[in-house]
Write the structure tokens for this entry.
Amino acid sequence: MKRMLTTLLSVASAGVLAACGSGPAQDAGPAGGSTGGAITMGFSQVGAESGWRTANTVSIQDAAKAADVDLKFSDANGEQENQIAAIRSFVQQGVDVIAFSPVVRTGWDAVLLEAKNAGIPVILTDRAVDTEEPDVYKTFLGADFVREGQWAGEWAVKEFAAAPAPVNIVQLEGTTGSDPALERTTGFAEAIATDPKLTVIASQTGDFTRSGGKQVMEAFLKAHPKIDLVFAQNDDMALGAVEAIEAAGKKPGQDIKIVAIDATRDGMQALADGKFNYLVECNPLLGPELMDLAKKVVAGESVPARVVTEDQTFDQQQAAAILPERKY
Ligand code: GZL
């Protein structure tokens, strides 16, 4: 089990979270609900597309309660315009701090400038943005997605070292234009480039959802008679791929190996069951650290520009031991 050195801090896993995949976490109510906490935070969440997202939402809502932060939580249902509208609403309401997980990397300059001009600090969590505007957010809290992709690729190179050429890989990409999809693709490609017999023969977005992963994998199986490995950029798409592979009469984890990123409970179960072969964790429990950063930012304290969470990896042997205590 590898553990990436934490560049700045590890994210403490806090709180008992509902098992992933148990349906979207209850919204904390429409933006505007408040309970008179020490500071008010407007949070715009991507949506409820995956087990990871559910765990992330619960972590943020639980941490806000524990930190006495009034949380105005908005679920964007995967749409950037909904996030932009929510951020504008938070500015109009005069919240103390805005935090959000940007569904895609681009298109945020105008609304981030509006928050800056209103004197409301912004924190990016989970995903980063591309912007030319200086000082439009105070810090980024989240994982190093390139490293996650590299770890998945490094495992693939080792796993297929003795295999004959070609080793055909299909890639299930996350949401098009999102930070994790772009960077995990980069990291994985860099790692497998060390062994030319490993080739990505097909790559398509499954939008980080189980149904998306299943649909894309069904098409890949029809188009490609020899697939040796699936690299799925999250567990949910990998679990959808398992359904497609089994429906095609093949054994996931044996006929077609699977490496995925997130390591949520459902993914860890598939790893323990031998249907996945390797998992790279992306810790969703960002809530406690986000609240600490928010209080510092509102108090005018300086915070690091980038706060990278700790990741680790799991193989099948480790999965069975980990499962009983897995909180998400
Ligand atoms: C990663 C996060 C990704 C997860 C997916 O930090 O943005 O979005 O890997 C989720 O499961 O949908």
Notes: The domain at 145-282 is CATH 3.40.50.2300 (Rossmann fold).
